[in-house]
Design brief:
The protein has 6 helices and 10 strands. By secondary structure, the protein is an alpha/beta fold. The chain has one domain (5-173): DHBP synthase, CATH 3.90.870.10. It has a 10-stranded mixed β-sheet, sandwiched between helices. A hairpin with a 6-residue loop joins strand 9 and strand 10 (188-191).
Length: 210
């Protein structure tokens, strides 16, 4: 089912089923998040991830983040203590953490040079339901690298080639997620985004000032 838009508002169950079928067939899917539209593949699908990199014109050395259904699913990918994220997940926060030894088989586009992985649990019911159905999702913004992220599903598919299944979740024009590297003490903000340092510190994350 390529080049098709599914309205998640009118049929959320059907939208998850359609996206799951595409992902399992080895094809990327455009999907809404709580920040911007993203394009996703299964974490073990190196071919689909390579397709995403080509469509975006993205540097192959730049890892993609992984969206998870919940902290329990994230715990399969890292041995880091995620309890500190209790007040921040689900939400627009990506954390860089050490990759669990058992997850180091994942394709290169997910693992950083120092054996780290970026994880996020989005505040979006459909994305979390999809991750619960098919497993963690390798995801990046649905744009050409360096360009502004499209705000609608149809714009996103047009930018990325027009032949992808897209889940229409309405307008997505929020700030990108804040990215925090938890491998440092104190934690370091790598990219400022929807959650500001004051909110991170209030939640007990303890980030260093930039």
């Amino acid at each position: 089912m390529t080049g098709h838009v599914v309205d998640s508002a009118s049929d959320p169950v059907g939208a998850v089923a359609a996206a799951a079928a595409e992902l399992r067939a080895g094809r990327p899917v455009v999907l809404p998040t709580d920040t911007v539209y993203g394009v996703a593949a299964l974490v073990g699908d190196a071919s689909a991830m390579a397709d995403i990199f080509e469509r975006k014109g993205r540097d192959a050395a730049k890892p993609m983040a992984v969206l998870v259904a919940d902290a329990n699913q994230a715990s399969d990918l890292t041995e880091a203590d995620l309890d500190v994220l209790a007040d921040l997940w689900p939400g627009p926060l990506t954390v860089i953490v050490p990759c669990a030894p058992g997850a180091r088989f994942l394709p290169g586009p997910l693992i950083g040079e120092l054996g780290t992985i970026g994880l996020r649990c989005p505040d979006h019911d459909l994305v979390r339901a999809l991750a619960a159905e098919v497993g963690p999702l390798a995801t990046t913004s649905a744009n050409r690298s360096g360009e502004q992220s499209p705000t609608t599903a149809s714009e996103a598919t047009a930018v990325l080639g027009g032949d992808l299944l897209a889940i229409d979740g309405g307008s997505c024009d929020g700030e990108p997620s804040t990215v925090v590297d938890l491998t440092f003490e104190p934690a370091r903000i790598i990219r400022e985004g929807a959650i500001d340092p004051a909110a991170l510190n209030a939640a007990g994350l303890g980030v260093a000032p930039r």
